[in-house]
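User: Predict the structure for this protein chain, please.
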Amino acid sequence: MIKQYIALALGLFMATLGWASESAGTKLELTHNWVGYLAIGIFTFSYIFVILEEKIHLRKSKPVLLAAGLIWILIALVYNAHGLPHEVEPAIRHNFLEYGELFFFLLVAMTYINAMLERGVFDALRNWLVEKGFSYRALFWLTGILAFFISPIADNLTTALIMCAVVMAVGKGQPGFVSIACINIVVGANAGGAFSPFGDITTLMVWQKGIVQFSEFFALFIPSAVNFLIPAFIMQFALPSGKPAEVEGVQEGLKYGGMAIVGLFLMTIVTAVCFHNFLHIPPVFGMMMGLAYLKFYGYYLRQRSKTWTAATEAPPGSGADPYNFDVFSKIAQAEWDTLFFFYGVIMAVGGLGFIGYLSMASEFVYGELGPTTANVLVGILSAIVDNIPVMFAVLSMQPDMDLFQWLLVTLTAGVGGSLLSVGSAAGVALMGQARGQYTFFGHLKWMPVIALGYGASIWVHFLVNG
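Assistant: Here is the predicted structure, written as structure tokens:
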């Protein structure tokens, strides 16, 4: 029986090779045959597992890594069978270079964020908010506004987790407050990330492509602010009155060197921007140079640690050592599942683009519907499917759009994920952090209000930047 299945599979595959026909020189037409359909099926099937990550507890990188490998195996087999063994390698290298730049950029940013977390920078901010004794409404606005302004620097996922920790600390016994505050944080973090190259993966990809320059992203500040403020203004009327009870057992605050690392991170961002704007070097090289800043500072802290250990006769690596810091441990703590997920998505979508599906989609979506309608739909689609593959697909399509339309799709892809709790990494993370209090259906109840902010932000973009 197994041999029969193998023979059948081989027969179907060989038939497919016969269907593939050459066009445009050395490019094969594979969009209307079994190979193309199977590639689409593999990617769709793998993405179902990504969507169900929270239910089945299978990390999202695993299915897309497998899908990427299978898609390119299919492509390579077809091209080899047609005597074109060297056509696939350049395409793979091109897509891998796209990923390589994104990988090292994010790795440096994640290392800095982990270093700031370990030095208690965000704990100090949380402690300050908790200790001030703000009312529920004040905390709602403060956490939302901070999410909006921190996410352009620290990324929307990390920012949302930090602000959620504040809400969870002060909102015990008030699940209604936690739910609405978390929705506000997700909307604020996603909106804040839309007007900065560092705020979201999608904006980073657009910037690294050189399509939108660093300063041009800030044209989206007012539309992004509108996207956050309209839902926040309406949701505040559902908040409980009064203020939370005093919280006991506040965690440890700022450690030695915390603010210095914040300064080094800002210097790293400036370096990356200068590399891109003035030297016309990919910004990832500026980020890697910025990693050297942290490594040298880590060396300084390690020397201080040795002096402190000798003076106090404490064992090396003692928990009481205020200077104990290891840069490589921060690199090891990067979100590797997320980084490998990006690899799988970029390589799989790149494979579908090489087959020809992205060109077909571009001709229909941007040719038939027009760029404005297409870019608005991109935002709605990113609420269902992660905005990273959606934006990478748009970038791979290379539609003929002016700066206004590229800013529009950057805005919609960034804030569209707020429509559903599963539409952004921030929302998915907070459903896990505030389990049982911030839920899919709790967020869904406020979707009309969030959609109002989504539509208003697009209208304001036309009004201000059109």
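The first helix runs from residue 2 to 19.
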